[in-house]
Amino acid sequence: MMRTWQISTVTDAARARIATARMAAAYGVAPLERTRLATALSGRLRQCLTKGGTWRLSLKAGEGLLRVEVAASPAAGEPPWQVAVGCPEPADAAVHAGVADDTGVLAEALLGADEDTSLVLDKLAEQEELVAFHREELHQTNQGVLALHAELDAAGRAQREAFAAERAARQEAESARRRLTFLADASAVLTASLNHEEIVRRLPELLVPEYARTVDVWLFDSDDDRRPPVPHPAAAVVAARTGRPQYAADHPGGLPGVDDQPPSALDPARPLLCVPLPTRRAPLGVLTLTPPGERWDPDDAVMLIELTRRASIALDNARRFEHNRDIAETLQRALLTDLPTTPGLRLAARYLPATYGLNIGGDWYDAFRQPDGSLITVIGDVTGHGLHAAVMMSQLRTALRAYAVDGGSPGVLLTRLHTFLHHLQPDLYATAVIARFQPGEPVLTWAAAGHPPPVLRDPDGRVRTLDAKPGAMLGIPLRQEIADHTVPLEPGSTLALYTDGLVERRAQGIDPGIARLATALGAFRTEELDADLDGSAERILDPMLSDSERDDDVCLLLCHIDSRTPRLTPGN
């Protein structure tokens, strides 16, 4: 459907505008689109009337569009004005509705249309203002959201930085705990030994490979003259001379308390940390380390210097211990007498120094003749250990021999020793057993002062403990007279005198050990004892000490009457 109007006056324009509005409504154009179409067409028609002349308005509906065209009539050089709006198909009656010819009606319709258009435009303006308001609110909201995101990002960064700082602090604390744990464990290992060679051997085992690649311990007085001297790095020599740790490398070490030196000529490519082994007097040597990687962490270097100081203390203590032990053992062995030979009486003695701790020096044995020809055998133990105990043992041994020159039974000799020790060293005590063998008399006289009882094996293999009432320990603040005891002695009999190191165990006490000694002594045949008393003593020690930590000296003195000796009777 197509409609055309010729417009040359305001009435023509009003009639055409009204017809267009009606057709748009008839064709189902949306109200808002109709309003916009009417407004646009009114504006164009005003322009046309202002220019003058005749204009043609064409209205064509089809294919879902309502097309409006305004062009000059006749056609001029100006292009036509065109507009199109969407519309459904209209009913026929609505399409051909007429428009009144009355000028007043047209003017009123045109005025009403303009007023409607004005109202619609006002509403559109209000809606645009509302849209602008909401758009501004949305913009402000977006700005707030962006600010919130910025704050959240800043908070996230701060939280990540806090987590990183916490993680670094936790790692640092864990590293410090690991170093302290290692330092404590390594110190316990080093101080547990009193052998300086073992300490030197354990140092590389502790440090390699976690804290060092190689470890060299240079002790100043341990070089073997029979071997060519080993070259030492210049930094180690400087550390020995100055007493300060030195770091030799082609770059600064930055280690606290450590002086930097040029790289070592012996191995220029490898950094060296040379730490002196300090003591109260002078350094014992120098510990030279190479790093497990390219260089040391400063905290690890501080820990290594502290470990070296503790190792030096352990080495110094071990050397002092070894020195005192050697002196005590040398003194004690020098004072242990050579056993005399007596027809029909054989003696065998064994002395074993303690191998654990500084427990050497208190045990001794002795055998000598008195002026009347009787043989005195003695075994004893001085309380305490070390050099002081060895010196006191030597004084007791000398005093006993001096008292024995004037004669006297074992009880009398022990009583004199008790008085001597009490006045000489009031805070030192001793135990002892003295047995006297009288030539031509088949009787053994013995006395004990606080010492484990002697064990006597009869010729028939029966073993008994001589546990008659003993005296108290020598040197205690008590006046005492130590009594003598006698027991028959036949050829083939064997008397065992010993110290507590042979029979006493911490977990069992002394009685089980004495029973084991009696069993071991009773297992020998008399012929074995006659033939090899020294070998018999060895065969007693082996099983007796198999479960011992050897933390005390061990003395064993066997006195055997040869079974081939003629039997003696009193008065013969």
SSE layout and pairing:
Layout: E1 2-7, H1 10-26, H2 31-51, E2 55-62, E3 65-72, E4 81-86, H3 92-95, H4 103-191, H5 196-207, E5 214-219, H6 234-242, E6 246-248, E7 259-261, E8 272-277, E9 285-290, H7 298-335, E10 345-352, E11 363-369, E12 375-382, H8 387-405, H9 410-424, E13 430-437, E14 443-449, E15 455-457, E16 463-465, E17 485-488, E18 494-498, H10 500-503, H11 511-522, H12 526-531, H13 533-544, E19 554-561
Helix pairs in contact: 1-2, 1-4, 2-4, 4-5, 4-7, 5-7, 7-8, 8-9
Could you give a short description of this structure?
The chain has helices at 10-26, 31-51, 92-95, 103-191, 196-207, 234-242, 298-335, 387-405, 410-424, 500-503, 511-522, 526-531, 533-544, and strands spanning 2-7, 55-62, 65-72, 81-86, 214-219, 246-248, 259-261, 272-277, 285-290, 345-352, 363-369, 375-382, 430-437, 443-449, 455-457, 463-465, 485-488, 494-498, 554-561. The chain has 572 residues and is of the alpha+beta class.
Written description of the protein model:
By secondary structure, the protein is α+β, with helices and mostly antiparallel strands. It starts with a strand and ends in an 11-residue tail after the last strand. It is built from 13 helices and 19 strands. The protein is rod-shaped, with a radius of gyration of 61 Å.
